[in-house]
Amino acid sequence: xxxRSDLSALAYEILxxxxxxxxxxxxxxxxxxxxxxxxxxxxxxxAGKLRDAGYEVTTGIGGTGVAALLHNGEGPVLMIRADxxxxxxxEETGLPWQSRARMKDARGNEVDVMHACxxxxxxxxxxxxxxxxxxxxxxxxxxxxxIGQPSEESASGAARMIADGLYTRFARPDAAIALHVAPExxxxxxGYREGMISAGGESLDMVIRGIGGHAAHPETTRDxxxxxxxxxxxxxxxxxxxxxxTEMAILxxxxxxxxxxxxxxxxxxxxxxxxxxxKKETRDRLLTAIRRVADGxxxxxxxxxxxxxxxxxxxxxVPPMENDSVLTGRVAEAFLQTYGPDRxxxxxxxxxxxxxxxxGMGDPPVPICYFRVGCGDSGGYLHSxxxxxxxxxxxxAAHALIIAAxxxxxxxxxxxxxxxxxx
Length: 423
Description:
By secondary structure, this protein is an alpha+beta fold.
């Protein structure tokens, strides 16, 4: 049977033909980044491109979410997801299409915005795959359900789309796939893994409350700035002294906010904290230890019981994500046969977190396969101001989505038809 190699070559031909338009689309997405929950322009633009490719498109799902369907006879429903949101980071790539966008964040602060996590690549690859798969309907059967997901960076968009009836208003997928660009892999390489593929993550807001006053009379205050510094340092020993070295655990204090004047000790200081883990037991130990450390430092600093630190776990928290072993094995085998063993690697679980796994939850669960596509020439790492993947990753990512989709949507009849058409 010749169909896989011939279809792969045909997919490359289509993507090569579409490449100038796709590269232009990528630059459009890149210079118009939007923060989580605010992807208005992005949603409209992505929806328009998918509609132009022949898909039935619905917008406004769970906020700014997009669903695009293409029916091609009886067969499985395959969901392919791309995330849409950007990050509050000032871009410093120096590219001609560098983002200079600014927006107000959820707290009302005006911030610089850039696509520092490759979501512009993901959306462009989705459009490329959509166009190619629409031209290759002779080679697959079923329904394609392409998703533009908002608010991945706040780990809330997938849940909101499902709560808004994604699976009841349209279709419950038989399988779901997604990809992410990977600076740690060389360009053109694919990384996959059955089972655990990414860490769980929790985001916490901690407010350390003191008693403010004049900087000239600190003895009349309980300085929350000093307490915050002590809490930050004390938190660092949780990983090294309370979590076994064989377990993965990360604790990061990412922001510190407090005070407004040189000579005024504030009443409170706010910390934003993030943890990562592979096991729920590790998560529970981390959260318990964070509370104990914060309360202990506050009590030692003379803070009364009614003003101990206030800790809030945010809804942008997600559990570890696990790939379906059977589905991922099939997709990985298709990658190996298409790209060869030198370009396809079984990778270790990544410590980043991802809410794509939410699409797989439920009763019955939806089998998911999440994989990574190398962009090691990016000049930076994810979430950095210098992150700029080479545009060749667009074709690599789109082609990988096509190969995975053709593997999942194939049956004996369509394989025979494809062979005949490709002779």
